[in-house]
Amino acid sequence: MSSLISLLQAAIYFGTVIMLGSLGEILTEKSGNLNLGVPGIMYLGAIASLTGSFFYERAVEHPNPVVCVLIAILCAFLASALGGLIYSFLTITLRANQNVTGLALTIFGSGVGNFFGGSLNKLAGGVGQISVSSTSAAFRANIPALAGLGVVGDVLFSYGFLVYLAIAAAIVLQWVLHHTRVGLNLRAVGENPATADAAGIHVTKYKYLATCIGSGIVGLGGLYYVMDYTKGTWANDGAIEGLGWLAVALVIFTTWKPIQTVPGAYLFGILYWMNYYIPGLTRYSQEIFKMLPYVITIVVLIFTSLRKKKENQPPANLGLAYFREER
Amino acid sequence: MTSQNHSKQREPLIRMVKRDHLPAKKAWLIRIIGLLLALVVCAVLIFSITKLNPLKVYTTMFGGAFGSTRRSWQTIREAMMLLCVSLGLAPAFMMRFWNIGAEGQILVGGVATAGCMIYLGDKLPSILLFAVMLIGSIAAGALWGFLPAFFKARFGTNETLFTLMMNYIAIQLTSYFVAVWEKPYGSNSVGIINSDTNAGWFKPLFGQQYGWNVVIVLVLTFAMYFYLKFSKQGYEIQVVGESENTARYAGINVKHVIIRTMLISGAICGLSGFLAVAGSGHTISVSTAGGRGFTAIIVAWLSKFNSFVMILFAFLLAFLERGASEIASKFNLNDYASEMIEGIILFFVLGSEFFINYKLIFRTKEHAQNETLKEEAHS
Amino acid sequence: MILTQTAETKASAIQMRGITKTFGEVIANNSINLDIRYGEVLSLLGENGSGKTTLMNMLSGIYFPDAGEILVNGEPVIIRSPKDAFDLKIGMIHQHFKLVDVFTAAENITLGSQQKGRYDKKEVARRVREICSKYGFEVNPEQKVYTMTVSQKQTLEIVKVLYGGADILILDEPTAVLTLQETEKLFSVIRNMRADGKAIVIITHKLNEVLAVSDRVSILRHGEYIDTVNTKDATEASLTEMMVGKKIALNITRDDIPNKEKRLSVKHLSVMSPEGVKVLDDINFDLYSGEILGVAGISGCGQKELLESIAGLQKTEAGASILYYDASDAAEKQLIGTNPKQIRNLGIHLSFVPEDRLGMGLIGSMGMTGNMMLKNYADGKSLFLDRKQPKDLAEKIREELEVVTPGIQTPVRRLSGGNVQKVLVGREIAASPAVLLTAYAVRGLDINTSYTIYNLLNEQKKSGVAVVYVGEDLDVLLELCDRILVLCGGAVSGIVDGRTATKEQVGALMIKR
Fold it and tell me: What's residue C6's pLDDT?
């Protein structure tokens, strides 16, 4: 029982990182931009929040938890949105190839993340030494009264607020995409920009905004990773990159539906951690288990292409640039 | 009424128009300007972070990449690896098949090579061992290329996302084998394979440790150039990439071409894994591919699939990496500075393509004056 | 400014003055003037490629003019984007529908509309029904677009524009894809809208429609403005003259070739579209050597599928048979179930000039040389391409057909439409075909190039080739072809003798039910 609880908890921690990543990417892809820079943007969000908090906590003797949280979120969001802006400018305005630009952004982001992460470690005196304990604690704070409710408390209420915020974000994004004018217009941009354009929708504006805000959300995934998952430390181990690609996988797995990222992300989390809880597994068969999220994603990808159900397909114009006077 | 507002509006300040054609010389000039701009931006960045003289930093980078024979050879080895992967990607991209899966294809090629070295290193004579390693790596890479190609050809499954996922399956597979082959126990690594016998290691050629890498990759460079440009299969790849309808019209079996091309693409990427394991690292780990699968995509794309132009870009990126690790140790920074600089340079080179394909038309004075006159007439 | 429109005032809606637009070296519109008025239907008449759509796209904000000015309701305006057009209450129904497939009708209708606030599905549905009953449309707000017929999509487009509050409606070739009944229905809707005071422009090249529905006609020819006349003063003849220039007798030679042999025999040919609609319905006909068989019909009546079935590019329904009779040994060869490569391997010389020149017949990014070998690149055992022969052929075609190109290595995409077609036709003829299929071979070409093509086809016929000519200009069909097969809704509605048939006769067959 206790191992089942800790598996669920691990899955939820893990799932929250990729849930935020995939929500941001869904928003981006709905505008027709296939941003393969997700891992890079996560790095940007992670390092920006860490750097911001680090210097705040160094400067103040008694860091205020609320200020800690605000600084971290603001830094993460702005830095990631800036990454999204670079991507947008290159692909939307300058019409560079989306795949190539996204990969360049991943290279850039992981460079920036690890460069500054390494430098911060050095400043702090070694790997794992960065002390943003106040900020990390603020992000991990839960409501003791609820968290103490035995099993229910452990499974449902033992997490920091970002876990719940991510779920809320999924619901809000689902609602915005399918029940508001803005969402309708955005989906039209991703499906058929010429149509959206002819309907008077500012295609470029929508693409820019969706990509930048989406990137900001992706960056919060990075923030959650450093502040909660690794408890305010940094290691140049490439873990964020792996999570970033998993977030891209989750987008496919959910067939571009935000609300489905909630069960999807936790399922990925369970699949990823399950191997530790199955007795009798050797260390190497554990590695095989970690393959499961990717294998399942491929299976989903094949099935959606097989069934050809229109509602489950990627946005029709995904990956393509739009130029009005094309003929 | 709305038209009132519109009469105040002018012709847009800048409009963009597709260019008919830009001479190759000018196109390269634009690219070089982009590159120089990138170096300036990097210089500003370097200075603002480290307060070091950027010129000195660049000189140090150059020294790091080409300062001694040994360093030059390391840069060459790195460039050859990158070039080899790019060569593998070229046919797929020319067919407009987004093979983002080179990273995985390299890894499985490397795993196959390492497996042969470990299990057969002391059982087979050298020549035969190399043959098995080579075939194994090619077959593994080809399999990794085949799967997404098959589903793309058959059901139109999105290949970008499929190949992307295949990377991580390959990474987990590699982790699995690293755990199986772990040596010494508990190190979580395979260590140097056959460090005692050197079985399955490339022998020095012309006295150079990486001689074989260079020869193999250069042969491949010429072969790929001629394959894409002069062979019938290369022609088919071009036609399929341009328009599937035209391909059908010409009687080309599109599915067949997609699968065949991806077998080749995967095979060459698998071969790069062979080079990485047998020709330089003599070990296997999840970082054997080291992001080259992704960097090579950019190399192949920027070179417009021309093998010889790829040599240039491969060297540029290898130079950046080697140079940056030099400044890292010399100025007490860390290696990842290279990725940052690489990213910035890529942004600029990618952006410069726009000015090759489009031109900007600024609102002319004359036009603007007309507008003002019109406004006056109506106010 | 509030406009009160009655039939008498006919207030000016749009004035275009000296509008010029060029694409590269092509002048699509040269200093065009146009008046559009409320409560009136204006036909914009011209042949394909005369610049009608380009001109209207500058009103809808798709293109931006190089020169000239536009006045809406008497005020000079700058239309920089569709949104600007929208704000000016200009709505265009494009020939290629601008609809999002996975959306419902209601979602498409509300798309981008300027009303703020909550997106209320019920309110949208209510207003849609209101518009429908006002003008006589039928739209189900909940239906997804990808399940709709062409006619339903068009209706949706019009409702969408009206919902957005447009007062000026532009319809681009609205009847091209409609059946006769659907066309009638559309016209009655157009009349309702006119009565409601809307300004309406119909882009068309069909004279009967101009006369049936419009009040005034403006004529464009090769990007030039010709004239505007009142419909009641116009006749088909006078309009034709303005549209095509001086009525020139086509003077296409038509020899009667003796000793015709049966070359193809098509029996029970049916084809289903991917959407499950029958696009070809039990087609039967024979094709002979030394003749040009014309194929007439409203566009989209199965012409494309017919040619592609013969060329081995189309999946056909069971029971179909296309037999080829070889001239040398009179052997019968079945073409059903083959692909283009197998047809060549059967020793059949079949050439095909498809409608989509750069998207199917040629590779736009390659030069003439690269395109010459498209069909026979695989000949011979060598792994490598033989570039010598195609290069020589390219030189020859360039010289003989006077292809204007900077060089035979210049990507054909950069050539003008006429030169692209010369390259394509030249290659297909160079293959010395026994059967030559052509689809809209002169579409968008100038008169001179068109004649070059007619002459080439005639020469082929004289040398004993069986030629199929799918065309849209009835005058040309009647002057060029020995026999004319008329398609209507995917079925053969008649095969007539090109020498004796009249335009009226063929026209009637085209819309026979």
Answer: 43
State the pTM of this model. 0.84
Quick one: A61 exposed, middle or buried, by C-beta within 10 A (0-12, 13-18, 19+)? exposed
| Range 112-171 of C in CB contact (< 8 A) with A | 112-114, 116, 118-119, 144, 146, 160, 164
Assess B11–C contact: CB distance below 8 Å, yes or no: yes
The tokens describing C146, both together, are 């990808």
Please provide the DSSP assignment of B155-190 as one string: H---HHHHHHHHHHHHHHHHHHHHHHT-SSTTSSS-
Q: Does A326 touch chain C (CB under 8 A)?
A: no
Q: State both tokens at B30.
A: 């634009």
Phi, psi torsion values for A149, nearest 5 degrees: -80, 50
Domain count, chain A: 1
Q: Does B232 touch chain C (CB under 8 A)?
A: yes
Q: Give residue-wise pLDDT tens across range B269-314.
A: 999 999 988 888 888 888 888 888 888 998 898 888 888 989 988 9
Of the given ranges (B263-277, B329-343, C54-68), which has the lowest mean pLDDT? B329-343
- Residue A161: C-alpha distances to residues A57, A147, A214, C195, C321 (Å): 21, 12, 20, 62, 70
Local structure of C422: helix, strand or coil: helix
Distance between CA atoms of residues B47 and B53, nearest Å: 6
CATH class of B69-316: mainly alpha
Per-residue burial over B125-136, b = 16 or more CB atoms within 10 Å of its CB, e = otherwise: eeeebbebbbeb
| Percent of chain C whose pLDDT exceeds 90 | 26
d(CA C116, CA C94): 26
pLDDT tens sequence across C380-416: 788 888 888 889 999 998 888 888 888 888 888 878 7
The residue ranges of every structural domain in chain B are: 16-52+331-379, 69-316
Q: Which residues of B touch A103 (CB under 8 A)?
A: 100, 294, 297-298
Residue C61 backbone dihedrals phi, psi, to 5 degrees: 85, 10
Give the CATH fold of the C262-349+432-510 domain. Answer: Rossmann fold (3.40.50)
User: Where do the CATH 3.40.50.300 domains begin and end in chain C?
Assistant: 12-244, 262-349+432-510
Question: Cis ω on the peptide bond leading into residue B184 (within 30° of 0)?
Answer: yes
The rounded distance, in Å, linking the Cα atoms of A30 and A207 is: 9
Which residue from C63, C87, C101 is facing A325, i.e. has the nearest CB?
C63
In the predicted structure, residue A157 carries a pLDDT above the cut 80: no
Longest dimension (CA), chain A: 65
ipTM of the complex: 0.87
* Superfamily of chain region C12-244: P-loop containing nucleotide triphosphate hydrolases (3.40.50.300)
Question: Where does residue C277 rank: exposed (0-12), middle (13-18), buried (19+ CB within 10 A)?
Answer: exposed
Q: What is the separation, in whole angstroms, between the first and last Cα of chain B?
A: 15
